[in-house]
Specification:
mainly alpha, 2 domains, 0% strand
Length: 218
C-alpha cells in the first residue's frame, strides 16, 4: 500500500511540473497513465486491506492530481472535476472493480479455477449461474477477507444491477450511479470562501458540467 501511495505522489509531482506546457487533454492522459493505472492494478486484492487513513490519503492525492489537470486553485471543489472527467474516487473505483470481477465469476466468464472459491457455497442451489445472476452469495466463516469483501459488495448492489445481461451495460450503469453521487454544485451557498476566491464560478459556487465539457476537452 505504501508503494502505491508513493507512486501516486510521484504522479502528482509530474502533473504539477507539466501543467504549464501540456494541454488539458494531455494532462488527463498523464493522470490516467500514472495515477489511475496504479490504483486499478490488482485493486480487488489490496483494496479491501486499505485502512480509512490510507484511503483518505489516496483520495486527497486524487484531488490534488485533478486540480493540476484542470489547473484549478489548491482548495477548489473537486466533486465537479471528478464528474467532468468521469473519474471515480478510490472507494468507488474499488467497488466498481469488485462488482465487475464478481459479475464475471457469476456469469462464468472467468476460468473455473478462479471462480470456484467465490462460488463454492452456491453448489447446493439449483440456479443456472449463467442466466440467473441475481443470486446473492452466502457467507462462509472460513473465507478470506478478499472473498468476504467481494460477496458483501455484490450483495449490497441493487438486484437490477445483478440482473444485468451485459457486462458493458453493467459498467455503464455503475459508472452513471457513482457519477450521480458527485455534487456538481457547492453546497455551502454564496458564503463559500472557496467559491468567492474563484470568479469563474457562479454565485452558488457551481462548476456546471455540460455534455459538451464532458466529451470535448481542450
Amino acid at each position: 500500500m505504501t508503494k502505491v501511495i508513493q507512486k501516486v505522489k510521484a504522479a502528482c509531482f509530474a502533473l504539477n511540473n507539466t501543467k504549464n506546457f501540456l494541454r488539458k487533454r494531455e494532462r488527463l492522459c498523464v493522470y490516467r497513465s500514472l495515477v489511475e493505472s496504479h490504483l486499478r492494478y490488482g485493486i480487488i486484492f489490496w483494496g479491501p486491506k486499505v485502512t480509512k487513513v490510507e484511503a483518505n490519503t489516496i483520495l486527497k492525492l486524487q484531488k490534488r492530481a485533478l486540480r493540476n489537470v484542470e489547473i484549478a486553485r489548491y482548495n477548489s471543489h473537486t466533486d465537479p472535476l471528478f464528474h467532468k472527467f468521469r473519474i471515480l474516487k478510490f472507494n468507488d473505483l474499488l467497488r466498481m472493480e469488485q462488482i465487475v470481477w464478481t459479475y464475471k465469476s457469476v456469469m462464468g466468464i472467468f476460468p473455473e479455477h478462479l471462480t470456484q472459491p467465490l462460488l463454492a457455497n452456491l453448489s447446493t442451489t439449483n440456479c443456472n449461474l449463467r442466466s440467473q445472476s441475481t443470486s446473492t452469495l452466502p457467507r462462509n466463516g472460513r473465507e478470506t477477507q478478499l472473498l468476504t469483501s467481494l460477496k458483501q459488495t455484490w450483495n449490497d448492489i441493487d438486484e437490477s444491477l445483478r440482473n444485468t445481461t451485459s457486462l458493458d451495460v453493467l459498467k455503464w450503469n455503475l459508472n452513471s450511479k457513482f457519477m450521480s453521487e458527485y455534487t456538481k454544485r457547492c453546497t455551502a451557498g454564496p458564503s463559500c470562501p472557496v467559491c468567492k476566491q474563484d470568479p469563474a464560478l457562479t454565485p452558488l459556487g457551481a462548476l456546471e458540467v455540460s455534455h459538451e465539457t464532458q466529451t470535448q476537452i481542450d
